[in-house]
Amino acid sequence: MIRRARREDIPLLMELWEASFGDSRAYISFFFEKRFSPQETFLFEWGGRPVSMLFLLDAQLQHGAKRYAVKYLYAACTAPSFRGQGVMRRLIDSAACSAAEEGADCIALVPASQGLFRYYAGCGFQNAFFCETLQLSRKEMGQLAAGSAASGSPLAVPEMAEIRRTVLRPRDHLAWDTAALEYALEEHKFSGGSAMGVRSGEQQGYCLFDQQDDVCFVQELLISRGAVDSIFSALMKESDAHIFSLRCPVGLLPFPNRAEKRAYGMLRPVSPRAARLPQTLQNAYLGLSLG
Known about the structure:
This protein has 291 residues and is an alpha+beta fold. The chain is built from 9 helices and 13 strands.
């Protein structure tokens, strides 16, 4: 049976999450305390237990002058003994129908692996969001930061929201509300990551990053035009990494021959007005995917 969750389902949903993703109980509890909503949670129940679940989180998609209501599909999983039986596809179809009835235009998601792009394509999703990845050595970072003495400061949600509005306004992108930004920033820090804002005159930006051994992974980098040297200068002061692996919107950084463009997220239209949206979006950006 497919249904929405109830609060009394939480212990069993947490068990399913742990069995599927292997996350710590502390991390799982963090989500259920901060972000869980029964109304946004769909589950497939068998024998009185949830054996598959997914969460639909509210967002908006900005496409030129138009806005579309989006549900972001998160933490979809199925118990190992029920995989390969079409359970998740049935759950996604049911959740998509409910989302459409409640006014959503489309469902977005970020596949956790290349194989899942193929799986979700079979569930009606199409590539729609793209990013660029770039790897720089510390020496290269220093050369690009030359002439800037900018330092970072702790990132607060209002500053984060302002920078996102400014940098992403001319781009097609998935937009989050303030509550979602608050959770994303908390989740990043809870998972051991760091967040830094930079402001130097008219230039501003921020990045979310974490360091593993000698590599600094930048999960989100948003900067205004001309702020590359400032953000790199500040990042080098925050991290002693030898390698910097950056992920950002397509075309944000002025290194077209070094950056690699790749598909990052997918979209499934559920309303007539969004039917051709995956084809008409231009290098749309999806950040803060909680993955």
